[in-house]
């Protein structure tokens, strides 16, 4: 099982000689796997080229509630999605009452900023980012989905990443054409993750977005495409407004 970034397991990093990009292939449970064949096969770039191009639909009607209650336990492991991702992405994790509620951890080498960030519950400097922002998804197909698919996207580990809160706030609902992590070494991995989510959920991209994706991934032609995460439909007991 391959994850987007570090965890308790040992990391194997493939460093590409172009564009300062590297593919993070840290292993661990709960996160997306990588696939795509040998280095040089360009699986992420190939997937980006296959994405459907359309114009951005109006944001009219978007509300967070259309994607269900935040951090719903769609994988039925009795822990909410936020704590699942904190457990996956933080080091030195400590819990409050059991093994779900994360009270402390360290985000070592935050993927967006490159700095170490300490997480303390109630005083958190760590966000759980939707790699493909929900508002962006809404404007590129999700407004036409049923609630089960929207809830699945909002809670899919493939689309979630623990990151430095202050850096994340600069992203807003930006796509690849409008925002990339300041940490240039993570950009190939980040864009590959956006491509993976959009491909999995059949979201379209704008022409500018696709061009930006291809520009980044052309600089790291061996970048693999993450796969895995949860099914694309939440269990029927979950509902959205």
TrEMBL record:
<keyword id="KW-0255">Endonuclease</keyword>
<feature type="signal peptide">
    <location>
        <begin position="1"/>
        <end position="23"/>
    </location>
</feature>
<protein>
    <submittedName>
        <fullName>HNH endonuclease family protein</fullName>
    </submittedName>
</protein>
<dbReference type="InterPro" id="IPR011089">
    <property type="entry name" value="GmrSD_C"/>
</dbReference>
<keyword id="KW-0378">Hydrolase</keyword>
<keyword id="KW-0732">Signal</keyword>
<dbReference type="Pfam" id="PF07510">
    <property type="entry name" value="GmrSD_C"/>
</dbReference>
<feature type="domain" description="GmrSD restriction endonucleases C-terminal">
    <location>
        <begin position="80"/>
        <end position="215"/>
    </location>
</feature>
<keyword id="KW-0540">Nuclease</keyword>
<dbReference type="GO" id="GO:0004519">
    <property type="term" value="F:endonuclease activity"/>
</dbReference>
């Amino acid at each position: 099982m391959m994850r987007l970034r570090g965890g308790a397991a040992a990391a194997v990093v493939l460093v590409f000689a172009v564009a300062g990009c590297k593919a993070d292939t840290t292993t661990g449970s709960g996160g997306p796997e990588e696939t795509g064949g040998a280095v040089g096969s360009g699986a992420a770039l190939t997937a980006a080229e296959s994405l459907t191009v359309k114009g951005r639909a109006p944001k009219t009607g978007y509300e967070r509630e259309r994607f269900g209650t935040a951090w719903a336990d769609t994988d039925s492991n009795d822990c909410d999605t936020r704590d699942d991702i904190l457990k996956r992405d933080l080091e030195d994790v400590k819990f409050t009452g059991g093994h779900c509620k994360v009270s402390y951890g360290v985000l070592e080498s935050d993927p967006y900023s490159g700095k170490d960030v300490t997480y303390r519950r109630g005083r958190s400097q760590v966000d759980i980012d939707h790699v493909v922002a929900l508002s962006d998804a809404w404007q590129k197909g999700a407004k036409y989905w049923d609630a089960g698919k929207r809830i699945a996207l909002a809670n899919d580990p493939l689309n979630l990443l623990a990151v430095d809160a202050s850096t994340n706030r600069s992203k807003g609902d930006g796509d690849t054409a409008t925002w990339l992590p300041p940490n240039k070494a993570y950009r190939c991995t980040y864009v590959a993750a956006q491509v993976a989510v959009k491909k999995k959920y059949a979201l379209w991209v704008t022409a500018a977005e696709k061009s930006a994706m291809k520009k980044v991934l052309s600089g790291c032609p061996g970048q693999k495409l993450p796969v895995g995460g949860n099914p694309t439909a939440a269990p029927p007991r979950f509902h959205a407004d």
